[in-house]
Design brief:
Layout: H1 4-19, H2 30-37, H3 41-53, E1 57-60, E2 64-67, H4 79-85, H5 92-99, E3 107-108, H6 121-132, H7 147-154, E4 164-167, H8 170-181, E5 187-192, H9 196-204, E6 208-215, E7 218-219, H10 221-231, E8 235-238, H11 252-265, E9 268-272, E10 297-302, E11 314-317, H12 320-333, H13 339-349, H14 353-379, E12 384-385, E13 394-398, H15 405-414, E14 417-418, E15 420-421, E16 434-438, H16 444-459
Parallel strand pairs: 3-14, 5-6, 5-8, 8-9, 9-10
Antiparallel strand pairs: 1-2, 4-11, 6-7, 10-11, 12-13, 13-16, 15-16
Length: 460
Amino acid sequence: MTDDNRVADVARSLRALVDAASPGDRLPGVRELSRRYRASAVTVTAAVGQLAAAGLVRAEPGRGTFVTDRAARPEPDYAWQTGALGPARVDADRAARLGGYGSPDHVPLSWGYLAPELLPQEDLRRLGARAVRSTRAWAMTPPAGSPDLRRVLAAPYRVDPQDVLVVPGGQQGLVVALRTLADPGGTVLTESPGYPGTLLAAQSAGLHVASVPADAEGVRVDLLADALERTRARVVVLQPSFANPTGAVLGADRRRELLDLVVRHGAFVVEDDWARHLAIDGPAPAPLLADDAHGHVVTVTTLSKPASSGLRLGAVVARGPAGQRMRAARTADDLGVAPVVQEVAHGLLTSAAWPRHVRRLRTELATRRDALVDALRTTLPEARLTAVPRGGLHLWVRLDHGVDTRALTAAADAAGVLVGDGRHFYVDEPPAPHLRLSFGAASPAQIAEGVRVLGGLLRA
């Protein structure tokens, strides 16, 4: 694995070397460049690759890498593409922030995945080694997924395995669900503040998004009823358990009201069940799917959060014609998730290591959550917690009116602390300044240091 920032640094140094050279000059070898820039061979090779992609150098196998004659290459003009493509569908700025995680030197106080030491890495390595030796890992599986894996994924939801569709991660599950359940140009409803990836998934499917306010008990169902009437939307996307960013859990009364509401309107609820394995104080609430008899709830789940960000595997649970359409669409997409990935996931979920990992994870997340809560209360009392979440990975923090969260998060980033700007969790304008602070990727010591730095910036 390479450090993108280090590759960029070496590429800049190499660019200066190339600019000073003449066409046809041969660059020093990788070993020499590694010594010169004190970088690994992998980093140097990646940097040279960037220059080659820009047309500044060319590699000749067996001879070396040579400076090209840039005068013979016209400067590319891509301006025509803007007119041909039309308006951008997906918000590039929001997409970049969703996938951005700073550098290895940053304190990760806003990151939606777990620290390496919290992952079952030894188990995954062992299972991966076993999986690659299996003939099933290299054989075609049905587009909907391996039958064995679908049975395992179906069990917690008490559904027929035929209702399970294996997808490459929860984000892809959201895209598949929205693309199938709503017509392009239509409207979907989602809670606000809420998960920014919902907006990106809707944009990718060619949909408009309208927001419904949420509070400490989840989405305001009374306001959702008004929104369904006003917009005629037929799809609602929610995170009923440990919502990102607030940590809210949809209350029992609201669950019943929500299900009654979608039945009356003939609508779907896409339940983003991302944090099922990230409960801290007691078990996670039952999925909405458990109380739905007639296929109004479509549930998206993921292993990328509790097992590994690199294990891009999730599932969509959908019954009836909606499920049939989603499973058919997978054939058009990519014919399914790589069998070797499915083998690793199946091995993990059926091993004794999985329940042991989930138990350990609960203890570790409780320690880190409490460390973040304590640090905020003692070091940064100006930041007001809306609630202490009983699961998930995030705290939702309100700041005083007048705080510029854009400037604060930029200053924190420059100071080596990654925090989440609350503006990005609203579909529309935020009603007050907020930050999302995460506890799953940082150690207790990092948490204390990150909050200390943030407090100094806020008071400055």
